[in-house]
Amino acid sequence: VSDEELAKDLGPLAALTIGVGTMIGAGIFVLPRTAISQAGSFAVVAFLLGGGIAILTAFSASELGTAMPKSGGAYYYVNHALGSMFGSVAGWANWLGLAFASAFYMVGFGQYIQQIFGLTGQLGVGPVAVDPVKAIALVGAVFFVAINYVGAKETGRLQNVIVAVLVGILTVFTIYGALRADPANLPPAAGFDDTMAVTGIVFVSYLGFVQITSVAEEIKNPGVNLPRAVIGSVVLVTVIYALVLVTMAAAVEQGFIQALPTERIAVVEVARLLLGPIGAIAMLLGGLLATASSANASILASSRINFAMGRDGIVSESLNEIHPRFATPYRAIAITGALIVVFIAAGTVETLAAMGSVLHLLIYALLNVALIVMREAKPADYDPDYTVPLYPVVPILGALTALGLIAFISPLVIGLSAVLVAGAIVWYFAYARTRTTKRGVLSDYVRKRGVDLPTAVDAATSAHPDGGDYRVMVPLANPEHERELIELASAVAKPRGGTVVATHIITVPDQTTLEAARGRADEIDETSKFLLDRAREDAETFGVEVETHTILSHRSYEEIFDAARTHDADLVVMGWNPGAHGAPGRAEGTIDELVHSLPCDMLVLKDRGFDPSRIVVPTAGGPDSELAAEVAALLLATRDAEVRVLHVADDVEAGEAFLEDWAARNGLEAAELVVRSGDVEAAIAAEAADATMLLIGATERGLLSRLVRGTLILDVVNEVDCSVLLAERKRERSLIERLFG
Amino acid sequence: VSDVTDPPAILSRPLVPIASEDDAVETCRAAFPHIAAAGGRPVVVHVIEKAGGAPDKASVEQRETAAESAFDAVRDCAAAYDLEVETEIHYGTDVAEAVLAAAADADASAVVFHPRGGSWLLDLLTGDVRDELLRRSDRPVVVLPDAEGEADR
Q: Lowest-confidence range among A194-198, A511-515, B121-125?
C-alpha cells in the first residue's frame, strides 16, 4: 500500500458519515418542538426548505471540493476565489459558526442528560443558581474539547457506529409513527413568515455537509467520493428530517406537543407514546449520541479551518502548533473550547442555533459566489471532476436563498452576526492584510487575467520602457539547474544588452498526489524566494539585468508559453526534464497545438554542466539550425568557445560547399567545419564524443513537441555524454499549415 | 538481519523514529554521536498516525508541515556531527507497526530511539509506542539514554 493511499483513508461511507453524523444532531432531537409549535404542520416544510437551500450549496461545495481537495474546506475556497478579505469573513464565520453550533449541540446534550436523570429546578449554592441544562452543557463541552485535545482516534470510528444507530432509531420511529399517522392530527399550517423563521432556526441541522470538504484531503478518490458524500448526506438527512417531522405531526393529537411541560423533550415523548418506555429510552440514547457526535465533529472541523486560516496568514500560525505528545492542534482546540463555553453560558438554545445558522448561511452564500468566480475566471489549474448542474442557475439560487433566509432570522441574531462580520473585516485590515500571502482568483481576474506577481523589477529595467530590449525568459522549476540555465541565458542576453527574466512557476494544489498538494504551496513560498534570489545573484554575477517573477497557479508547459507572451520574451531558456515544470499529462493535442506556434525562440538545455568550451553544431540547414548557429556564434565570441560545425552528406564535396556557405551566412567563419558521410546519428555521436556541448537545431518540425511528451526519438541526444542544447525558432503557423502540416 | 550483529554494525543503518520537533532534537543529540562514531547512515522517520477510515485528529497537511520542521532540526543536528541523514514520512494507523515497516523497507540495522518518559496516564492516552517497539521488533532495538551532559541536568 502506498503512503498516499494510507494518507487518504476516508472511503465513501466514512465521508458520508462525517456529513450525516454532524447534521443529525440537536437539530432533529431538540428543535421539533419549536418547529411544530411555531409552524404547525409546515414544520415539515421548514425542514424541507432548509434541505433545499442546503442542496444548492452542496452542489457548489462538491465542485469546489473536487477541484481543490484541501484542508479547510469552505473557508479555503472562499479565500482562494475571493481573496483574503472575504477569506477572513468566511474563516471567522466558519470558526465561530461551528463554535455556536457546538454550543447549541451541547445545550441539547444537557437537555437529554437532564431528562435521563430527571434533574429539575435549579442547581445552586446559596444565591448562585444555575440551570442544570446549562451546567451539564458546560461540563459536556469541556469533556468533548478535552477528548479532541488529547485526540483519541477511536472517537472517529465510534462516529460511524453512532450514525448507524441514529439512522436505525429514527427509521423505527418513523415506521411506527406512519402506522399511527392520521391526517386529522396535523396541526394547522403556519403562515409564510413563521415558516421561514422556523426554517432559519432549523437550518442549524444542515451545517454538516460542508465539514466533509474540510477533510477533503483525506478522502480517497475525492473526485468521485466527495460529491457523493456531500450531496448524499444532504439528501439523506433531509429525507430523515421530513419523515420524522411528518411522524411527529401526524401520529399524535393536535396540541400534544404544545401541552408538554417545558422540561420534556418532544421527540422523546412522542416516541414514548408510539413505542412505550423502550421508545423513550431509545430516543434519549439517540439524542445523547447525536448531540455528542455533532459537537465532536464540529470541534474537529473547526480545527481544520484554523489550520487553513493560519496557513494563509489570516490568523497566527502559532495557533496551529501540533502538540508534541498528542499530535493534535491543541491550541486551536483549546480556543474553540473556550468560545463554546462562553457561548453556552451566554446564549439561549434558539439564539445559539440561529447564530450557527446565520454564520453558515453567510458562508454558503460566499461559497456559491466563489464557485461563480472560479467558473468565470477559469484559472488554468481549476479542473473539477464534478461540475454543478444547470450552472449558473444553481449557484446563483444557492447564494440568493442563503442570503434570503437570513432576513427571516431574529434581528438580534442578524445584528450580532453583522458585528462579527464587521469584526472579521476589521481583523483583515488590522492584522491579516499585511501578513497574508494570498491573492484571490477574483482580483487576478479583475486585473485582466494577469496572474503574475512581479516580486522585484530592477530600477534600470523599469526605467527602460521596453521596445528594443532583448528579453530572455528562464522558467525555473528546481534549484538543481538554476545556475546553468541562468548562465546560458546571461550569455545570450549580455551581448545584446538584454534582460534575463527569471520566473518561478509554482504549481498549485494538485489532486493527483498528496505530495504535490503539500510541497507546492500556492503562495510565494520560501522555495520561490530562495530560487529567485539565487537566480538574481547569479545573473548579476554574469553582469546582465534581471527581473524575477513568481507565477502562481499554473502547472504545465502551457504556462511557460503564456508567460513568454506576457513578458514579451524573445527567447525562452528552459531545462529539459519534462517533469520539472509541473505535472505532465495535459492533453497531447493541446501541447501539439501550443508548440506548433512557438511564441518566441526556444533553447532547451539537457544539462550535464554548462561548459561551452567545445561545441559541436550539427546542421542540415533550416531556421532552427540558424538559431543554433546564432547561439554558437555568440558563445564563440564571448566565451572563446571552440565551435565545430558538422554536416552529414553522402556527397562530401557538395557537403563542404554547402557548409562553407552556411557557416559564412551564420557568422561561424571562425568555426571548424567538418563534413562526414554515413549514418547521421553515428556521426553526431562520434563528433560529440570529446565535446562539452551539442548544440542542435530541431531539424524536424514538432521535435519539441515530442520532447514535451517524452517521446523524443532522437536517440543521439541520450547517447552523448555532454550537455545538449536544443534550439527551435519562433514560429507562427497559419491555419492552413495547422490543418495540413 | 542476524541477531549476532556486532555492536558497531548495529548502528550502520539505524532507523530513528521521532515524534515531534522537541523529540527530534533530544533523540538526535542522544543518538547521532553514537551513530557518527560507528560511521552509520541513519534514516529518520516520522509516522503520521491515521485514524483508518475516520477523520484524523489533525490535518494531514498540518502534521506533514510539523514533520518537516522536525526534520529541519534533524538535519541541523546531523550537520553538526557530519552525518548523512535520510528523512521519511510514513503513514499508519499503528505507529509502532509503521515504524517497524519503515525499518524493514530501509533494511535498517536497528531501531534506535530515545524514550520520552511519561506516566501510565500518558501511555494510556497516547498508546505506548515504546513498549510496542520493544515487544514487536524483528531487529535489534537500541534505547538510548539522554545525551551526555544532559543526564544530570
A: A511-515
- DSSP-assigned letters across all residues of B38-64: TT---EEEEEEE--SSS--SS-HHHHH
Q: What are phi and psi of A357, to 5 degrees?
A: -65, -55
d(C-alpha A23, C-alpha A467), whole Å: 61
Percent of chain A with pLDDT over 90: 35
Q: Which pLDDT band, with edges at 50, 70 and 90, does A552 fall under?
A: low
Position A97, amino acid: G
B58 with A148: Cβ contact below 8 A: no
Taking a C-beta distance cutoff of 8 angstroms, is the pair A259, A87 a contact?
A: no
Distance from C-alpha of B32 to C-alpha of A646, rounded to nearest angstrom:
56
Contact B55 A156 (CB under 8 A): yes
Please enumerate, as own/partner, the contacts of A441-444 that have beta carbons within 8 Å and a separation of 24 or more.
A441/A80, A441/A81, A441/A82, A441/A373, A441/A374, A441/A377, A441/A379, A441/A382, A441/A553, A442/A81, A442/A82, A442/A83, A442/A373, A442/A377, A443/A83, A444/A377, A444/A379, A444/A552
Asked whether the beta carbons of residue B50 and residue A518 sit closer than 8 angstroms, the reply is no
Q: Closest CB to B60: pick one of A7, A11, A297.
A: A7
What's the per-residue H, E or C state across A114-140? HHHHCCCCCEEECCEEECHHHHHHHHH
Amino acid at A659: L
- One-letter amino acid identity for A649? A
Q: Cβ B54–A160 below 8 Å, yes or no?
A: yes
What is the least distance, in Å, from the CA of B139 to any CA of chain A? 22
Q: What would the mean pLDDT of A278-291 be, rounded to a whole number?
A: 93
CA distance A495 to A411: 71
Whole-number Å distance between alpha carbons of A398 and A59: 9
Which pLDDT band, with edges at 50, 70 and 90, does A534 fall under? confident
Q: Decide if A156 and B51 are in contact by the 8 Å CB cutoff.
A: yes
| Closest Cα in chain B, distance from residue A101 (Å) | 19
Q: Can you say whether the dihedral through the CA atoms of A242, A248, A253, A255 is positive or negative?
A: negative
pTM score: 0.67
CA distance A58 to A52: 10
Q: How far is Cα A318 from Cα A197, in angstroms, rounded to an integer? A: 40
Q: Do A218 and B63 touch (CB under 8 A)?
A: no
Digit-coded pLDDT (tens) for A65-95: 999 988 888 999 999 999 999 999 999 999 9
Task: Identify any residues that bridge with A219 across adjacent strands, giving them in sequence order.
Answer: A10
Give B19's contacts in chain A (Cβ within 8 Å). 324-325, 327
Query: Grid coordinates in use for A91?
Result: 474563516
Per-residue pLDDT averaged across B19-45, rounded? 91
CA pair distance A417, A423, nearest whole angstrom? 10
Residue A512, min C-alpha distance to chain B (Å): 15
- Predicted complex ipTM: 0.84
Mutate to test the interface with A, among B59, B60, B88, B126 (most CBs of A within 10 A): B59
Give counts: helices (H), strands (E), chain A: 32, 13
The whole-number pLDDT of residue B150 equals 47
**What would the DSSP string read from start to end of A177-241?**
HHHH--GGGPPPBP-HHHHHHHHHHHGGGG-HHHHHHHBGGGBSSHHHHHHHHHHHHHHHHHHHH
B66 part of contact set with chain A, CB < 8 Å:
yes
Q: Which phi and psi (to 5°) does residue A159 adopt?
A: -55, -45
User: Are A469 and A499 contacting, i.e. CB atoms less than 8 angstroms apart?
Assistant: yes
Q: Which of B48, B60, B125 lies at the smallest CB-CB distance from A217?
A: B60
How are the residues of chain B apportioned to helix, strand and coil, as percentages rounded to the nearest 5? 45, 15, 40
**CA–CA distance, A245 with A258 (Å, rounded to integer):** 15
d(CA A108, CA A110): 5
Using CB atoms, pick whichever of B59, B66, B89 lies closest to residue A304: B59
Q: Is B39 left (phi over 0), alpha (psi -120 to 50) or beta?
A: left
User: Is a pLDDT exceeding 90 seen at residue A566?
Assistant: no
